[in-house]
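Hi everyone,

Forwarding the result from last night's run.
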Amino acid sequence: MTKLKDIPVTLESHLNALPDLPPTAWPNAPAFDFEADTLYLRPQISVGRNAAIGTADSDSSLHNGMYQIDIFIPKGVGVKIGVDEAQRIADHFPKGLELNTTAGKLKISNADIESSGTNLGSHYQISLLISYTTVIS
């Protein structure tokens, strides 16, 4: 079974295994030096729902959550590069992928690109939402 604290570590480790990954920004990389012409990522975990499984006295639950990766693309570079990067990351988290945590399996349910480029002024933002399920104790 997975502990809640294992989830971000497992997902981040899998993301970081992808070659040629852009730099990570915000709260994940406090030393990030923002450059206006740089494509960068902002991964974050969204709190999921837990549902008890097993007997009433069991302390295990099924946990569903979301790993959101925002891709920021400099305005002069073009949105297509960000969409391509989002798709490359989504392909790295295919539906059905099982990742090992220190205490069990975390299964990817889906990876969807949810935005085709929100204009933020100097950058566009594309959001990739990765759904996962695991058992926690």
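The first helix runs from residue 6 to 16.

Cheers,
N.
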